[in-house]
Design brief:
Blueprint lengths: L3 E8 L22 H5 L12 E10 L6 H15 L4 E7 L5 H11 L5 E5 L12 H12 L6 E6 L2 E3 L5 E2 L8 E2 L7 E4 L2 E4 L12 H8 L7 E5 L7 H9 L3 E6 L7 H12 L3 E6 L22 H13 L6
Helix pairs in contact: 3-8, 6-7
The structure holds succinic acid.
Amino acid sequence: MDDRIVVLGTGGTIAGGSALAGDNVGYRAGERTVQSLLDGLVVAGGPQAPALVAEEVAQIDSKDADAAFWSRLHARCLAHLQDERVRGIVVTHGTDTLEETAWLLSQTLACDKPLVLTCAMRPATAVSPDGPQNLRDAIALASDARALGVSVVCAGAVHAPRHLQKMSPYRVDAFASGDAGPIGWVEEGRLRLVHPWPGLRSDPGSLAQALAADNGAWPWVEIVLSGAGANGRQVEALVAAGVRGIVVAGTGNGTLHHALETALLRAQRAGVQVRVSTRCPLGVVVGMPAHGLPLADGLSPVKARISLMLELMQTAPAP
Ligand code: SIN
């Protein structure tokens, strides 16, 4: 009987509270329980509406998300995906690292049900909070059999994890999907697709096992930025401190300041895995830049970091 939607709470502004009702920025994230977000929420479907089951996974500001948080969330999603009573999963999450969590879950779960992340830009105590509508949209999406796998809904737009990026620190419509655009829209509880639903990652295989077995000690991967006046000192310090991977947000088409490039090539020779992404928010690195360092598969720096951590999780550190 797949008649349940499980709503996993993790904190964020959607569960944020402020002493001043008119204050949209001076609040604490993750103050309210996920059950309190569901209390009184009017969900479409009348008597056919799915049963909602709330579960608190964490109550954090997502800027503080870490490996232990991700391991726990992954484990709870896995358990509910395997429960035949569950039709779909909603995760309430802060906006600040939503794209990392969505990417991580999409790469590590074999999802044959909808798993929808949602969020808010205004706290639950705001005069006009956006969380309740986003949550209603997420529940509608998690009830829709077309929405298989991990997706994100915010301000009515449905995004695929690969393309999702937070674009604004303040606007209610804070996310975009770059050149790809949203997959579709939720309007009055109905999904309107404008692109075919993205294919699922069919077999996360040993990745899921590595994650389930790991209790938070993930491989150390950092992001460095190339720009005018860059140098190699940060990379040298990271290598000396034992970093296992470095993602570099390159300029333009994945180019690097020459001093940083020299340090990164040296780091690679020392056994550190290096991936090159771009600082540009649109498009991907085209062709192969002259430095020859491996590219980040069109991923933004923050998602490339997740992918590299997952890759290194399956590889023993060099002796
Ligand atoms: C957070 O990411 O937890 C706080 C900010 C937000 O949700 O908009």
